[in-house]
């Protein structure tokens, strides 16, 4: 949990900071979660779906050097619906992922007929098609192997953290 940022009460579901955890995982591993909650980790799609199922939630994505993006509505559907992502409230590349199904190296759920994007990108994530520029779970070297558009900038990152909390102002 993050009890300090933006009023606290955030559940951190993803953290990348040093490349110590391999995010090129299977469907079952992403469903259950992996890593170290005090370091790099993915909380688990099952838990994320349960957390966001009944009440509206906000998403906050923290990047290097105090940059962040905040989305007023965030939900992950259950496994039966392939953990479909629903996100709104910001206009950037991550918003383009809304409606995408979760894909992993052993489950190709993206809309592309040309290639298996999760295998090509070497990670599990919500890939709407083969041209996705948002891949915070990609290979980690000196920077995360992804671009992320926040505040109009495309950049590689050292650190990314995704967290959710209940949005009392949003409707279900």
UniProtKB/TrEMBL annotation:
Instruction: Give the superkingdom in one word.
Output: Eukaryota
Per UniProt, residues of the Fibrinogen C-terminal domain are 1-140
SMART domains to which the protein is assigned, alphabetical: FBG
Which PROSITE patterns does this entry report, sorted A to Z? FIBRINOGEN_C_2 (PS51406)
Q: Name one Pfam family in it.
A: Fibrinogen_C
Concerning InterPro entries, the annotation shows:
Fibrinogen-like_C (IPR036056), Fibrinogen_a/b/g_C_1 (IPR014716), Fibrinogen_a/b/g_C_dom (IPR002181), Fibrinogen_C-term_domain (IPR050373)
Q: Which GO terms describe its cellular component?
A: extracellular space
Q: What is this protein called?
A: Fibrinogen C-terminal domain-containing protein
Origin species: Capitella teleta
């Amino acid at each position: 949990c993050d009890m300090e940022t933006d009023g606290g009460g955030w559940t951190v579901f993803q953290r990348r900071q040093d490349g110590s955890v391999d995010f090129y995982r299977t469907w079952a591993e992403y469903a259950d979660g992996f890593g170290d909650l005090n370091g790099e980790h993915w909380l688990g799609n099952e838990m994320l779906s349960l957390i966001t199922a009944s009440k509206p939630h906000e998403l906050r994505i923290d990047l290097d050097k105090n940059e962040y993006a905040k989305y007023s509505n965030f939900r992950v559907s259950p496994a039966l619906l392939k953990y479909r992502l629903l996100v709104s409230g910001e206009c950037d590349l991550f918003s383009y992922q809304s409606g995408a199904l979760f894909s992993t190296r052993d489950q190709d759920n993206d809309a592309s007929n040309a290639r298996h994007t999760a295998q090509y990108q070497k990670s599990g994530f919500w890939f709407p098609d083969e041209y996705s520029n948002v891949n915070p779970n990609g290979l980690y070297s000196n920077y995360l192997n992804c671009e992320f558009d926040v505040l109009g900038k495309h950049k590689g990152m050292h650190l990314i953290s995704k967290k959710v909390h209940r949005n009392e102002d949003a409707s279900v």
